[in-house]
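Weekly modeling sync, notes
Attendees: AB, CL, MP (scribe)

Item 1: holo prediction request
CL wants a bound-state model with coenzyme A before deciding which constructs to order. AB pointed out that an apo prediction alone won't tell us much about the pocket. Agreed to run with the ligand included and paste results into these notes for async review.

Input as submitted:
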Amino acid sequence: MAGHDHDHDHDEISEITLRPFDLSDIDDFMEWATDEKVSHFCIWDTYTSREQAMGFIKNLAIPHPWLRVICLGEKAIGSISVTPGSGISEKKGELGYALNSKYWGKGIATRAVKIVVGTIFREWPNLERLEAFVDAGNLGSQRVLEKAGFYKEGVLRKWAFFKGRSRDAVMFSLLSSDFLS
Ligand SMILES: CC(C)(COP(=O)(O)OP(=O)(O)OC[C@H]1O[C@@H](n2cnc3c(N)ncnc32)[C@H](O)[C@@H]1OP(=O)(O)O)[C@@H](O)C(=O)NCCC(=O)NCCS
């Protein structure tokens, strides 16, 4: 029944939390890292082995300045990160995220982005601009950013080449002054 599903989704949303990655997240991480549907619009290739996935958690996820696991209760169901810039980009951070496809369409990614926005500008007082580039074909991700209050700034034509083709990217941003004012 639709009404029942809605209530259930609402309960799930209130159970969404973010925390740092841990080596013990490997099995949950494999669920989305090995899924073509998840990697399709992403620069990273689908993971094919547990060793490779363990390498990511150890060498990239844990040392990353701000990469969090999206948890539903105790289970890790996705990841979300803010990567700080340097040089002329020192006031900027780039947002990225991915979610286990079993949990798509419930508002979970939007909730995770809102949690990040609600904490990152206070955690990093130097941060003036949070930006995200989305493949023009990735309509679900564009919707997430719109729902989280990001501004769609424009389309960067043939901005990236990966997995055999050039892609237009849609540029989204949220400024600390948008959020804090
Ligand atoms: C993009 C992604 C994070 C979305 O997660 P999610 O939890 O399903 O997102 P939400 O439920 O919060 O919101 C998705 C919105 O997009 C909409 N949507 C999803 N697919 C769509 C499509 N193909 N066309 C149009 N809208 C779409 C949904 O209807 C929903 O909007 P609504 O609430 O107005 O109905 C998830 O699909 C994912 O992990 N994709 C693979 C990795 C990826 O693309 N990461 C982002 C790289 S920039």
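Recorded for review: Confidence is low (pLDDT under 50) at residues 1-5.
Action items: CL to compare against the apo run; MP to circulate these notes.
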